[in-house]
Design a protein that fits this description.
There is one protein chain. Helix content is 43%, strand content 27%. The radius of gyration is 25 Å and the shape is flat. The chain folds into 2 domains: 91 residues, no CATH class; 126 residues. The chain contains 5 helices and 6 strands, in the order E-E-E-E-E-E-H-H-H-H-H. Strand 3 and strand 4 form a beta hairpin. The longest helix is centred in the C-terminal third of the chain and has 47 residues. Helix 3 runs antiparallel to helix 4.
Length: 242
């Protein structure tokens, strides 16, 4: 019986997945393979499909997984021994859907950084760096010839912890954006590190753009409510309204 909490990558709504919205296929085989050179291993391929229960969404999510499995004589069951790879087939990445009032180039850089996070972490970090620069220029109106100077000017506008994390995005992103002076010096960016930069970009998009939009909506609602009260009051005071 299936029952687990889940967030849809398409509509970003939290929900609970049950048997009505979930199906899983699996197959296994015992063959010699290059994953473990020269040895037979029992391999298991799993395909999972989830349909978002939200009636306004109903998107299909597909994930593939390759495992090594071993037989447990105590339980007479095949158990996962090792996970080789997981493929996010649909959607192609875990990028969150951000609203259209965020500039399209920023959203596109963020989405692409998510898409290549595991395949090319260095390139993903570079895109996160570019996304950060776009936000600083658009949201804060800070424009300099170098990102390091833009971040330095940003220092008076944000909390120290946020500023330090933003500067870290620049430093890690520089690994992909600029060649080292010694071309033989190789500095890699790990997928986990690229993922951390993406998480920070998501936090900043929510903190800066989404929260500002929500505040403006709330403020406008108060203004509109007051305007409606004025209309009613003026209408009641006007003798011609009878």
């Amino acid at each position: 019986m299936v029952n687990f909490n889940w967030t849809c990558p398409f509509c970003n709504r939290d929900t609970v997945i049950t048997d009505d919205s979930y199906v899983e296929f699996e197959n296994s085989m015992s063959i010699p393979c290059t994953l473990i050179t020269g040895e037979h291993r029992q391999l298991q391929v799993i395909c999972r499909l989830v349909v978002c229960p939200n009636k306004e969404c109903r998107e299909v999510i597909v994930v593939g997984q390759l495992n090594e499995i071993i037989f447990d004589p105590s339980t007479h069951r095949w158990l996962k021994n090792r996970e080789y790879e997981v493929w996010q087939l649909r959607p192609a990445s875990n990028a969150k859907p951000f609203p259209s009032y965020i500039p399209a180039p920023i959203r596109e850089d963020y989405t692409e950084a998510c898409l290549i996070r595991d395949r090319s972490p260095k390139a993903s970090a570079t895109l996160s760096r570019r996304c950060l620069q776009g936000m600083i220029r658009d949201f804060w109106g800070i424009r300099k010839s170098r990102l390091v100077d833009e971040i330095e000017e940003l220092k008076v506008h944000v909390e120290p912890a946020i500023w330090n994390a933003i500067d870290a995005v620049r430093k890690i992103g520089n690994i992909g954006a600029h060649m080292e002076k010694d071309v033989n010096l190789l500095v890699d960016v790990e997928p986990k590190e690229a993922g951390m930069l993406i998480n920070l970009i998501e936090e900043l998009l929510s903190e800066w753009y989404v929260r500002r939009h929500e505040r403006e909506k709330n403020f406008q609602a108060v203004v509109d409510a007051a305007a409606q009260k004025d209309i009613k009051k003026n209408s009641a005071a006007d003798p011609r309204s009878d």
